Amino acid sequence: MILAQLPRFHLSILAKPSFALSSSHFNFLNPKPSVEVARTLFSFTSKSNLATVEPIPLSVSDSSDLDDAPVEISLDKLFIPPETDISGEDSTSLTARILKGSNIVLSKYARDAQVVQADYVKSSVKTEDCPADGLPEFALVGRSNVGKSSLLNSLVRRKRLALTSKKPGKTQCINHFRINDKWYLVDLPGYGYASAPHELKQDWNKFTKDYFLNRSTLVSVFLLVDASIPVKQIDLEYASWLGQNQVPMTLIFTKCDKRKKKKNGGKKPEENIKEFQDLIQGFFETTPPWIMTSSVTNQGRDEILLHMAQLRNYWLKH
């Protein structure tokens, strides 16, 4: 797959000699203070070797931003999926296994990632009204106007599967879209829209949180954060709530194509992303998985689908 031109994400791995390379160290669901882990999807001890994974080719165009300073990721900041052992990997081979623009290592479960078919199924206002066929699902949630519907459309390569609106806060239900007749993408109401009536915002918060806590087929929440603007407190609070309630989470940084000029006082997306990650260190013992995206250039589309695939296939096996 050839993606549109996008900024090259430079990556170098910083080894920490005292760090034990076991996936059990990467339990990002365990916030401070430590609590018993209710969901065990990402808390298994590594057993298999990463070298057994077949390489998955993803082609990315070159960019004029090649002089940007490399983004350095230390080993303890990587997300290593369960049953993935990197102890025998050198820096070069490990870097090749990390999804571009992310901290996620590919595992043997990263297969069947392509979206062939996508269909709207239903909208629900109660968790118990959601589809009951037992298929695994991934929920997209984020602040209003973060680009959630645009990202969903980009993932399925359909311009109007999820309707986008100039007015934030239009998504008011739990919207299920069935993918390949095998799993679901779920579009949830955005949060933080100031113009929404207080009663409506309370209803959104109530049924969204009930969905997070009680939906047994929920594999992971993908929390969307706008990387083109400074960190918002409401995003930090939402991430903290998910962690404290043991809800599996991946951070999706949107609008990474917007390159603010330094002379205008703006920060690059990479700078805003680093600031967000530094701030959530107080919420989590380890760094959650994250991916840089743009619905304009399709940056991160393939990486999200591969990440969803390896989580989904592991969930189905266990």
UniProtKB/TrEMBL annotation:
GO biological-process terms attached to the record: cell division
Keyword Mitochondrion among record annotations: no
Cofactors named for this entry: Mg(2+)
GO CC annotation terms, alphabetical: chloroplast; mitochondrion
Keyword annotations from UniProtKB, A to Z: Cell cycle, Cell division, GTP-binding, Magnesium, Metal-binding, Nucleotide-binding, Septation
GO function terms (MF aspect): GTP binding; metal ion binding
Signal peptide positions on this chain: none
Family listed: Belongs to the TRAFAC class TrmE-Era-EngA-EngB-Septin-like GTPase superfamily. EngB GTPase family.
HAMAP family in the cross-refs: GTPase_EngB (MF_00321)
Name the record gives this protein: GTP binding protein
